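This is your field. Have a critical look at both lines of this record:
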Amino acid sequence: METISRFLKTGKESFFLLGPRGTGKSTYIRMKYPDALSLDLLRPDVFRNYSAYPERLRETVLANKDKKTIVIDEIQRAPQLLEMVHSLMEEKKGLQFILTGSSARKLRKAGVNLLAGRAIMKHMHAFMAAELQDRFRLDKALQRGMIPVVLDSADPVAALHAYVDLYIREEVQQEGFTRSIGNFTRFLETVSYSHGSILNISNVARECQVERKVVEGYVGILEDLLLAYRIPVFTKRAKRATASHPKFYFFDAGLYSVLRPSGPLDRAEERAGEALEGLVGQHLRAWIDCRHPGVQLFYWRTSGGSEVDFILYGKGLFWAVEVKNGKAVHPQDLRGLKAFGEDYPGAKRFLLYRGSERLVRDGISVVPCADFLLGLE
């Protein structure tokens, strides 16, 4: 695949760039900062040298005085280097440090706040439809997802399976996050049924035949590895009783597709609906990070059963977005958005569907899903 321009914007300040493996962090940095001094901690020799002797970073920087930008790839593999980075920032003004990572766990344990105020946080997501432009195909995105390393493969399905194996082997097993890979693999399959739903930890634990606290730890691992996320319920100035538990999503529709088992009792439209909702969710997260960093993502659900898939709330933006997999719009499809509009008349409401017409019904914008995603620029 030819190089595709990303919406992520960076400047001259130091920053962390966090994102799952394969989302294009290193490619972006190489293109944006071609003359930087670069250290790749995925290389065994580099990892050994700098983890055993962190002071080597100071020596390397001092020996390359012409290099004002220093890139450290996969910083979570040697978080002790953060102390040296902090020291160099204090001593040598004018240096820019770019620290990429695919896991938040070790950084958090090492005290990533050490650099608070000196290095901002950026995130790299899977591709957005508007980044791909005319290369984007909704049906393919639902099956293969939007992870750059997968889309760049000659066999995306095989690449997705390899992607899962890579994380289990390199990130989970080698880093010692869990003692039982068998239990964790079974958990991945079981939790895939919770994609796009409220996550019931007890039910997942029962299906996996492991303790509840183990499943809580496994969910934490997925979130720390940036492979999954949860969104909370929207409760601001609530006029009705609302749900209290968050919804769970994998970070990419393709990851959900390859992890979710299929069988004779599965309904294709149900799987497709969950994949479509997740695809919209990952786009909204990426769009917020790139264009509206002060906005938060929620969902809305009342105790009476009214629900809206996504609520975007923040300065200058208040959207309610419902996702339907059908090609026609039925009155019941609008019920959640109508109820939300009664409680929050200032919200802009969207119904996304698989049809081809743009409509306005009862003040609700009905938009083809592909058009909506391509419009998130």
Q: What stands out?
A: The chain has 16 helices and 14 strands.
